[in-house]
Every structure is written in C-alpha cells, then in structure tokens.
C-alpha cells in the first residue's frame, strides 16, 4: 500500500494541500504537513488528524504516532506547482549536484519553465534543473 497516495487522497478530499509527508525509517512516526490558502489552524490539523486516524484503522496502516501541522513560514517547495505558485518569493535551493562549485543558492523565484526553476540572485538569473533540486524552501520576509 502506498501511504503517500492514501494520505494525499484523504487530505485533498478534505480541501487541503499535502505539502509534505515524513515517515520514520520503520514507519512508526508519520508527519503530515498540510496547507490551505487562508492558512492552517489548529482545528484544521485536528480535522485532518481525526480523518487520517479513522482511515488508517480501516486500511490497517501500522504506526505509533501521527503528527499533522502547517508547513510553517519557511515552507518547503516540492512540486512544480509550488515553484509556479510562489513566483516573486525569496527562496533557498540546494542542488544534488553542484553547478560550478556551488550547491546552495538564494534569490527571488522567477518561475518554472521547460523543466527549470528560474532564480534571480545577486549575480544574475540562473536556470536550475528541477530534477537536480534536493531541497528548496521559502525564506520569510519580516
């Protein structure tokens, strides 16, 4: 059984976006990060947690602890849609393979075109291959 697909289906059915799912190596801890346009409340987390608990019981998903929360201000960017949605935001990106001698980049997200993430840094505009992105996060402005 694909737990990620199951969680995605349940979360989307409740009207939320599944941002990320983390599982401990033996699947004993499940962390679910959800988002919604208006922002995530404690009641949202409780509603998703209750629904997932019921579904996991029916589907015989074996786990010890379930945590449901908001992705926070430094939300991870995982999908192509994330890079399209947050155009104009400050982000940090780490690549799996360096470009030149550099793996870490920070700048303003310019969009997603032809399989590449457009990033404007102080050194100019870069095109980073989406498949090479190991980790990307929003950088909150205060």
From TrEMBL:
SUPFAM superfamilies assigned to the protein according to its UniProt record, in alphabetical order: YhbC-like, C-terminal domain (SSF74942), YhbC-like, N-terminal domain (SSF75420)
UniProt subcellular location: Cytoplasm
Main location group: cytoplasm
Pfam families attached to this UniProt entry: DUF150_C, RimP_N
Span of domain Ribosome maturation factor RimP C-terminal: 77-142
Record's keyword terms, sorted: Cytoplasm, Ribosome biogenesis
Listed GO biological process terms: ribosomal small subunit assembly; translation
UniProt domain Ribosome maturation factor RimP N-terminal: residue ranges: 6-74
Taxonomy, superkingdom: Bacteria
Cellular component per GO, a single term: cytosol
CDD domains: YlxS_C
InterPro entries: Ribosome_maturation_RimP, RimP_C, RimP_C_sf, RimP_N, RimP_N_sf
Record-stated family: Belongs to the RimP family.
General function of this protein: Required for maturation of 30S ribosomal subunits.
Record-given protein name: Ribosome maturation factor RimP
């Amino acid at each position: 059984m694909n737990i990620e697909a199951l969680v995605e289906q349940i979360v989307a059915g409740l009207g939320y976006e599944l941002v990320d799912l983390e599982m401990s190596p033996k699947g004993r801890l499940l962390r679910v990060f959800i988002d919604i346009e208006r922002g995530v409340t404690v009641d949202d987390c409780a509603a998703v947690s209750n629904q997932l608990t019921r579904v996991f019981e029916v589907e015989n998903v074996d786990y010890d602890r379930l945590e449901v929360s908001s992705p926070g201000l430094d939300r991870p960017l995982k999908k192509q849609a994330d890079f399209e949605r947050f155009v104009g935001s400050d982000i940090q990106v780490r690549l799996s393979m360096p470009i030149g001698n550099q793996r870490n980049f920070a700048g303003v997200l310019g969009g997603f075109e032809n399989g590449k993430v457009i990033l404007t840094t102080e050194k100019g505009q870069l095109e980073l291959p989406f498949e090479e992105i190991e980790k990307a996060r929003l950088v909150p402005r205060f």
